[in-house]
């Protein structure tokens, strides 16, 4: 396929091939041509479009017209080889002329404004960017006026070349991208040998606490297995294996609950143990222990089945009686071990299956939620099944029961009220919940939410998106992805504003007018004022609690995963304003660190990666307010830098987007804002270049004016 004719080394397409390499490349092109063309040995337009795999037919049609040198309506092998030779062996000027011919739709030798507008419209569609016609006209005008230096009303080849040279790196990228989709294979590939990531020194350094815990966990299992198996040395190998696995299961099935003690983990995060224990990986360890339990249970079952088979051959009891009845006499309660073991294995397989990612992330969270509650009957069956399990469960089970009881009592003692709802783009629901007087949380914390009108018994975790400094309400941003979240969005979308009483609506409006306007507020058409009862369990801590202890933080979010940073960024602004001091004599500003001793953060780089344009819309208003606050500060007082990326947009290394990206750059410089998001920060196409990670800079704030303030 033409789209597969890609080489990993871009420098190879600029070099000169030897005669042997050129012959090998021509043979390779011939084979690819036969694959595309089929029996007729010619490529028509439809086959060419399929091979290029482009969204917008304009570029496929233009490339096809340029490749079809004789205008026959098909591309022969000779025409393909000639075009590829130009793109691969040609000079930068030849490749630039090819781009010019793509833009020169009518072949007049110049590009007029209508042709440029047609090209830019196709570029927008290819990059999945939706802009109104007025913005398209402005983009066309910006690029056309910049390139048409002589004011003749048309862009010549020389003017296009001069315009490209004004943008650093564009000419080089053009040289690469012109043959990007039609490069020859490397005749002498030199694959770089990379060590597996798990064997790198940096991996061991960054994950030393997790690896240490895994080593302790594995060593403890080995010790438990050996001690239990050695006690049954005289009973045979199958009994030894069964007893060894059973002892390990006693530990796993009781300790697995400790990893989900959310209140306990939140408390531990505030202690020095957070620097030693991998508390942030509690869910991963919980999943690991679940798989270990499943594996040990299978081995434990197989070992007992083998033992039952030997007993059935040697005695009068049949195999199925040993496996499914109480005649074996094994178990804490006489003879109940085999039937309870079968029930436990079936429950465990059900839990493991319904806990898989394909179930949880495919909109069936409720299946995972309800089947996971099987841990209660499993514990009861384990107490009956194993004579010593209750001893292992005594302490972890008591802790788990206390946490669940406290959480249920606290959450049910006082029902909260959803005062206001905003329906945001990308099917995001923004809830404003009345904040209880003693509800204290930190930026990035999350809560479990229960709304009886949506589902009486379901609790779902959501990150708090409002700042702790906001005293009146708690904000949650919820994207519709599963059944519960979709029902939530649809129920508020169908909510009739007339259903709210006039007094209630007036009260909500007065309350809203007294509060500070939130950056995420939408127009009244998308707002719902209501008084819906809900329950909140939490707050619970996350790794973001340690963010203010660093001097330079890099926040990386993708899609709706940016919600923790909404709270963090708003809290940063509030703390920044609290620390800000102004000299009454010279009006100089500086930061007084004594006002917030826990706040060591001086520089924040916020990187947000989204798939499409609409994913930015619900969060842009908050970022706009942050940019406005930063614009009021002096250059040395600005601590926040935004980096926005859109993965569906094609970059400047793609011929189908060079003109669009140039126009977006020109218009952004002119209007001081981005066309896609409306922010001052330019939205970059593609993904971040992690080799250019933000680096910490020394803070150079003045300190001499502190005495002047005093």
Automatic annotation (TrEMBL):
Residues 55-90, 91-126, 135-170 form the EF-hand domain. The keyword Metal-binding applies. It is found in: Membrane. Residues 679-698 are annotated as: Disordered. Residues 411-546 form the FAD-binding FR-type domain. One of its GO terms (molecular function) is calcium ion binding. Residues 679-694 have a biased composition (Polar residues). PROSITE patterns: EF_HAND_1, EF_HAND_2, FAD_FR. GO terms for cellular component: NADPH oxidase complex. InterPro entries: EF-hand-dom_pair (IPR011992), EF_Hand_1_Ca_BS (IPR018247), EF_hand_dom (IPR002048), FAD-bd_8 (IPR013112), FAD-bd_FR_type (IPR017927), Fe3_Rdtase_TM_dom (IPR013130), Fe_red_NAD-bd_6 (IPR013121), FNR_nucleotide-bd (IPR039261). It is a multi-pass membrane protein. One of its GO terms (biological process) is superoxide anion generation. The chain crosses the membrane at residues 211-234, 288-310, 330-355, 367-386, 553-573. It holds the Pfam family EF-hand_6. Keywords: Calcium, FAD, Flavoprotein, Membrane, Metal-binding, NADP, Oxidoreductase, Transmembrane, Transmembrane helix. This is NADPH oxidase 5. It comes from Carlito syrichta. The gene is NOX5.
């Amino acid at each position: 396929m033409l789209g597969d004719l890609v080489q990993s080394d871009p420098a190879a397409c600029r070099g000169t091939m030897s005669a042997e390499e050129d012959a090998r490349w021509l043979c390779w092109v011939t084979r690819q041509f036969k694959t595309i063309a089929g029996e007729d040995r010619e490529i028509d337009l439809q086959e060419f479009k399929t091979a290029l795999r482009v969204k917008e037919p304009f570029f496929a049609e233009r490339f096809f017209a340029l490749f079809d040198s004789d205008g026959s309506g098909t591309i022969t092998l000779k025409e393909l080889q000639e075009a590829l030779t130009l793109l691969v062996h040609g000079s930068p000027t030849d490749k630039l002329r090819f781009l010019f011919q793509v833009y020169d739709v009518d072949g007049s030798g110049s590009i007029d404004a209508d042709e440029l507008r047609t090209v830019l419209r196709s570029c927008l569609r290819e990059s999945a960017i939706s802009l109104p016609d007025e913005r398209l006209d402005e983009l066309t005008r910006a690029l056309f006026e910049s390139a048409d230096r002589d004011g003749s009303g048309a862009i010549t080849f020389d003017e296009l070349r001069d315009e490209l040279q004004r943008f650093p790196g564009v000419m080089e990228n053009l040289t690469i991208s012109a043959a990007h989709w039609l490069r020859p294979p490397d005749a002498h590939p030199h694959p770089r040998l990379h060590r597996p990531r798990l064997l790198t020194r940096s991996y061991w350094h960054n994950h030393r606490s997790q690896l240490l815990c895994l080593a302790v966990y594995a060593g403890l299992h080995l010790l438990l297995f050996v001690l239990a198996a050695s006690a049954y040395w005289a009973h045979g190998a199958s009994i030894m294996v069964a007893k060894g696995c059973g002892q390990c299961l006693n530990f796993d099935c009781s300790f697995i609950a400790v990893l989900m003690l959310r209140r306990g983990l939140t408390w531990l995060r505030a202690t020095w143990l957070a620097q030693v224990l991998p508390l942030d990986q509690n869910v991963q360890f919980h999943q690991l222990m679940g798989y270990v339990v499943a594996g040990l249970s299978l081995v434990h079952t197989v070992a007992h089945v083998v033992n039952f088979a030997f007993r059935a051959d040697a005695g009068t009891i049949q195999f199925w009686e040993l496996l499914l009845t109480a005649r074996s006499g094994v178990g804490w309660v006489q003879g109940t071990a085999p039937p309870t073991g079968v029930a436990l294995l079936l429950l465990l397989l059900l839990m493991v299956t319904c806990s898989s990612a394909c179930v949880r992330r495919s909109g069936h969270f409720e299946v995972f939620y309800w089947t996971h509650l099987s841990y209660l009957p499993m514990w009861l069956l384990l107490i009956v099944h194993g004579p010593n399990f209750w001893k292992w469960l005594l302490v972890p089970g008591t802790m788990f029961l206390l946490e669940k009881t406290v959480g249920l009592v606290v959450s049910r003692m006082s029902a909260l009220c959803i005062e206001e709802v905003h329906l945001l783009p990308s099917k995001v629901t923004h809830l404003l919940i009345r904040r209880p007087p003693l509800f204290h949380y930190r930026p990035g914390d999350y809560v479990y939410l229960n709304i009886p009108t949506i589902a009486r018994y379901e609790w779902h975790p959501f990150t708090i998106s409002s700042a702790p400094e906001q005293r009146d309400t708690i904000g949650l941003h919820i994207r519709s992805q599963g059944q519960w979240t979709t029902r939530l969005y649809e129920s508020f979308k169908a909510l009739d504003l007339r259903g709210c009483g006039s007094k209630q609506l007036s009260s909500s409006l007065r309350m809203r007018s007294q509060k500070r306007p939130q950056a995420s507020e939408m127009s009244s058409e998308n707002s719902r004022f209501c008084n819906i009862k809900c329950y909140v369990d939490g707050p619970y801590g996350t790794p973001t609690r340690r963010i203010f202890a660093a001097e330079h933080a890099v926040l990386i979010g993708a899609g709706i995963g940016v919600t923790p940073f909404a709270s963090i960024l708003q809290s940063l602004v509030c703390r920044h304003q609290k620390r800000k001091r102004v000299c009454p004599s010279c009006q100089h500003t500086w930061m007084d660190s004594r006002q917030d001793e826990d706040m060591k953060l001086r520089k924040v780089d916020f990187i947000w990666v989204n798939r499409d344009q609409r994913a930015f819309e619900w969060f842009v208003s908050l970022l706009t307010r942050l940019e406005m606050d930063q614009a009021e500060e002096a250059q040395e007082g600005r601590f926040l830098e935004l980096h926005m990326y859109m993965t569906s947009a094609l970059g400047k290394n793609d011929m189908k987007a060079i003109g669009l990206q140039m126009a977006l750059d020109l218009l952004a410089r002119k209007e001081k804002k981005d066309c896609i998001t409306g922010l001052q920060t330019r939205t970059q196409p593609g993904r971040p270049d992690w080799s250019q990670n933000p680096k910490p800079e020394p803070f150079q704030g003045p300190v001499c004016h502190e005495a002047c303030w005093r």
